[in-house]
Amino acid sequence: MSTFQAPKGTYDLLPPDSAKFLAVREAIAAPLRNSGYGYIETPGFENVELFARGVGESTDIVTKEMYAFETKGGTKLALRPEGTASVLRAALEANLHKAGNLPVKLWYSGSYYRYERPQKGRYRHFSQVGAEAIGAEDPALDAELIILADQAYRSLGLRNFRILLNSLGDKECRPVYRAALQEFLRGLDLDEDTLRRAEINPLRVLDDKRESVQKQLGDAPLLRDYLCDACKAYHEEVRELITAAGVSFEDDPKLVRGLDYYTRTTFEFVHDGLGSQSAVGGGGRYDGLSEMIGGPALPSVGWALGVDRTVLALEAEGIELELPAATSVFAVPLGEEARRLLFAKVTELRKVGIAADFSYGGKGLKGAMKNANRSGARYAIVAGERDLAEGVVQLKDMESGEQAAIGVNEIVAELEARLG
Ligand code: HAM
């Protein structure tokens, strides 16, 4: 009996599937690296107050889903439920915004933790790759990020995703809308919890998934109709820029996100093959977050794409990524002398950059060839006493089955040439 299991809502990434996750992270990061984003890494936990203030005291993430704890020294920390607050905290702390080079463009990749009810696509430990562009108010920056996410998904071969786009207004127009929405919600037949939510965070009610609630929201006022001129013009410019880039999107005037820091541009990438957890990524502009966590005014925009859900989306579309074989050459020694010689050759091959592996544990030919097969190697090099007496090894092409003797001193050059 195995005593321990992975905690509820988590799973282990194991080969060969784990290679897909690495490839997805790579594919999302590639367009960012190519567009001036520098890599940032922050701790897996932060002061709990950072998220309470940043993500929002009344959000589900902060009230229900945070892994918060107190250290032996009495510090209140939380495992990070998201990356934006941490990245902005780190940028402010290091004064990156004062280096005179705004926006500060950063990308990250890592583990995030939310105490959610687990289901397919929703885990308590998950991976995101994200990007934040800090300190510039420019519709082209919002457009850049949406275009790069689109490019990342397309480079993976994904097609059945949609981009939902909205504007949440700013500190001028949102309060007016908020009051109007509240007034509307007060007139509905809602349970007590929902009415309370309407008082604290009315926009969140728009996101209520229950049909009994959605049915009543048909005539709800839309933020779109309350945007101030500046927000309207900004949003129009974002829409034009992404349209000009050939990226299609849908206007979704009811799109609200689960985090409170958003202003103006907000968007979500949804995949139609994933069932209820359809958001593969999301983001938007957060012009007030810096001030909310004690920094100067730094209008910013960013997104995070979920690696777990992106892998599920690939599976839903039946996409097999073309992953390079982990091993190109597999060495099979028969006998002690061959073991020493081939072990040295494997080390040499690795030094010149050829992925090579070795049959360990003194296996016989049959067992070792089985390992060679499983490794996915294109070539096996097999050597026994008789071969070595003649100064050769057998080089076997695992695809064609062809075998040829080659001189011991030619192994590396021959394989370099063949693997080109
Ligand atoms: P978010 O929408 O909360 O945004 O998360 C982004 C993505 O992370 C989701 O679309 C989803 O793919 C993935 N994700 C979230 N929760 C889970 C979960 N429990 N299990 C599996 N995947 C999950 C943010 O986190 C913002 N920080 C994005 C952002 C960056 N906004 C501005 N900059």
Could you tell me the mean pLDDT? 96
CATH superfamily of the largest domain: Bira Bifunctional Protein, Domain 2
> What is the C-level CATH assignment of the largest domain?
Alpha Beta
β-strand number = 16
Strand content: 15-25%
Unreliably modeled segments:
none
Cofactors, ions and other ligands in the entry: histidyl-adenosine monophosphate
Shape: elongated
Q: What is the topology, as strand order, of the major beta sheet?
A: 1-5-6-11-10-9-7-8
CATH fold descriptor of the largest domain: BirA Bifunctional Protein, domain 2
Largest sheet: 8 strands, mixed
Whole-number total of structural domains? 2
Number of helices: 16
Q: How helix-rich are the residues, as a percent range?
A: 25-40%
> Which second-level CATH architecture of the largest domain applies?
2-Layer Sandwich
Radius of gyration: 27 Å
Distance between the termini: 48 Å
